[in-house]
Write a structure and sequence with these properties.
This protein is an alpha+beta fold. Helices cover about 25% and strands about 30% of the residues. Strand 2 and strand 3 form a beta hairpin.
Length: about 160
């Protein structure tokens, strides 16, 4: 099965499950003088959950197809409260990512996460990505293109997202 078809099968059921995982968040930390966007206090919620293709007792099962199920943590490991800035970036292969720069608590939570699990990222309770990468004090999640990345950044940090 093509990767794009697998992702399409994942998006709908996972979005419904993860929308129920969203909880209220308060406040953010900001980094004055940074060139990346700083999340506004009233921007959209962003949450990063752990995900696995293996059965994990405390995770919620999400059926992708008759033959495939993934398991998603019930609580996020990273929330809006862990962000210091958000920006859109591209890698050397032209892929688009949203970069979440994390405070010390966010970095500690990411470092404590099992290395053999993946990530499911939601923005405003809607699935944004199933692809996440740790990079120093940042968490990057892949999106379809630069336009989507800009829209996600605008939703998370509406007052500062204009470039």
């Amino acid at each position: 099965m093509k990767l794009s078809r697998k992702v399409a099968l994942i998006v709908l059921p996972l979005a419904a499950v993860l929308a129920g995982c969203n909880s209220m968040k308060t406040g953010t930390e900001s980094s004055p003088g940074t060139t990346a966007q700083t999340p506004a206090a009233k921007g959209t919620a962003v949450d990063v959950f752990l995900a696995s293709d293996k059965v994990i007792k405390s995770y919620r099962p999400v059926k992708l197809s008759e033959k495939q199920t993934i398991y998603v943590s019930k609580t996020p490991i990273i929330t809006r409260a862990n962000l210091t800035s958000v920006d859109r970036v591209r890698d050397s292969q032209g892929r688009s990512f949203v970069k979440l720069s994390l405070n010390s608590a966010g970095v500690a939570a990411l470092n404590a996460a099992p290395k053999d699990q993946g990530y499911a990222t939601t923005v405003g309770g809607q699935l944004a990505s199933l692809t996440g990468i740790r990079q120093n004090n940042d968490f990057l999640f892949m999106v379809r293109d630069d336009q989507v990345a800009g829209s996600v950044v605008q939703a998370i940090a509406p007052k500062t997202a204009a470039k």
